[in-house]
Amino acid sequence: MPITIVPVKLDPIPTETSSTHSFQQTAGPSCVIKTAAGEISFFNGVERRVIRKFFNWLEKSQFFGKNALATATEYTLNRRNELKAFLYNGQIEIDNNPAKNAILPTVIGRKNWLFSVSEAGAKANAICLSLAETAKANGIDIYKYLVKLLTDLPNLAIHQQPELLQEYMPWSESIRATYA
After folding, report:
1. How many alpha carbons lie under 13 Å from residue 92 in its C-beta half-sphere?
2. Mean pLDDT across the stretch 36-62?
3. What is the pLDDT of residue 39?
């Protein structure tokens, strides 16, 4: 797989001045690595300094007890490594918006699914939603993909040969080539 490293021209953040110092920083990733799978950004030192200062501030804070601020501080400090992971691995998003947007239909439809007549109906709902969201996450046309599944799977011996299902997964080469 070919890899291209592209240095990014960083736009300066306006100079800040105070009575004791003045400094200029840059914003954004310091370089982007382009691969066939997509782009990977690596952050420069500005983000690391901001995160370090934030955690130093939390460690020195005087938040005690069971109040919301103390609980949030403890939660953040206990998950320090996980919260800093995006600094060291350019494939990790700085936020979880894609995951949040992926589960949004589930959250919106949750009240509707409370009225599934049976447990089997609720399970069928979950299977359908999982198929649709997984296809969407893999860039597959959901309607055409579901037509393919509902047409082909009843005619296959999947109980005797479960490995046949691998060819129908949304990430399989044949499905992506046909329905992406």
Report:
1. 11
2. 75
3. 55
